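Bug #2210: token dump truncated for PA domain-containing protein?
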Amino acid sequence: MAAAAVLALLMVSALAGAAAGGDIVHHDDEAPKIPGCNNDFILVKVQSWVNGKEGDEFVGVGARFGPKIVSKEKHANRTKLTLADPIECCSPPKDKVSGDILLVQRGKCKFTKKAKFAEATGASAIVIINHVHELYKMVCERNETDLDIHIPAVLLPKDAGSALHTLLTNGNAVSVQLYSPDRPVVDTAEVFLWLMAVGTVLGASYWSAWSAREAVIEQEKLLKDGHEGLLNVEAGGSSGMVDINVVSAIMFVVVASCFLIMLYKLMSYWFVELLVVIFCIGGVEGLQTCLVALLSRWFKPAAESFVKVPFIGAVSHLTLAVCPFCIAFAVVWAVFRQLPYAWIGQDILGITLIVTVIQIVRVPNLKVGSVLLSCAFLYDIFWVFVSKRWFHESVMIVVARGDKTDEDGVPMLLKIPRMFDPWGGYSIIGFGDILLPGLVVAFALRYDFVAKKGLQSGYFLWSMVAYGSGLLITYVALNLMDGHGQPALLYIVPFTLGTLIALGWKRGELQNLWMRGQPERVCTHMHIPLLPASPK
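Reproduced locally. Full output below:
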């Protein structure tokens, strides 16, 4: 009933196509490593104690110079924090300290100069308060040579540093502990996210293929009854379904790119609120469609009786009963989406939306599927990697994380919290990384159903294996590259398309897959009348 709304969400779904990971370790080609200044940029936890009681935990960034900060909390010493005098530490401090950690302001001198003065006065570490709320990378100048620094340096954002400064100026005894815990080798959140994505494609494909098979059975039944003129067998579709073509597949990427730039430029609180509203509309439609399809088995009379609703048309009684619950579910999620467990509601709305789109929107043949995935493949690579040349940052990653807002990112994502990660956060995957390959996988299963192929002799099993393998390689690459966001379609598209094309070519069915999208069939219900014999 709301195919237009679902299609609108299809355009938005590719906005966050990159699988984003953590950013504990940072690399910077503009600040290359030199002898004595060759540390990776790492995030550092600064746990505080005030008057002997555990206080707030802050997050800073380690310097390029100095010794490496310990990774295990048990190896980090709890050390007294002392205010520097002068506070900027751009000249030697007036008083000696005995192993304390020195708290200093950013000032105008070099980071290395501050660290040398702090070390000379007996400090065991230096914590620098930045003059803005962001974190800067503490680097060395290319011509610096005296970099023999033996104390660690940590930069805190302005709000965190000011909180510690206020505690000290009010006469409180403050001590801190500096450490940078490693992420676990295997992120359990990514395992569950992989299972969620593969399971969504699997379920949506079977629903799409089942609907197509029911339509074909109904067509054949009507043909047997002599109603050939009522249906077009070649179309193989049913009412409410939308077959995309090559032009719409290309336009999808163009429109999605324009929308992504608009998001990047206009990203703000009100714009994210608008996206939340759009997501809720699509989520309500998806949740309602899935619930009605599921409940219709037990409430068949309510599903088959209709009432006419103004501006909408005929709506089943079951849909009217389910709709208020779906609207309430989406509204509750939108209002409380900042709570720790709100990700469950977001994933439910997202999965049902993806399943509904795959059930309604159909790839008619492999040619259209190849154009769609190839364009999405280029789209993903461009906006994750190439966009850095023009925008000096990855547009896709910035939009996916919601860097310019107070939100955790755009809502068109599936996400799971990193439950066993000391840094917390979420593992995420964009709708486009599930939905777009899912359209092609669903096409493969529909083809198998019509051709009456088994699992091993068909295309669906192998396309599912290819999709799962491509997504798995994405997460492997994500971890090998220190958590930097990866365009998942970079790996998924070659696996999925390559498998289908190679199998079709090997089996001699590539022509049918590419152009027709269905096997050649002989219609047993069409009879050619015999021509009368011509007179001699």
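Output looks complete on our side. The two ends are 62 Å apart (CA to CA). Marking as cannot-reproduce; reopen if the truncation happens again.
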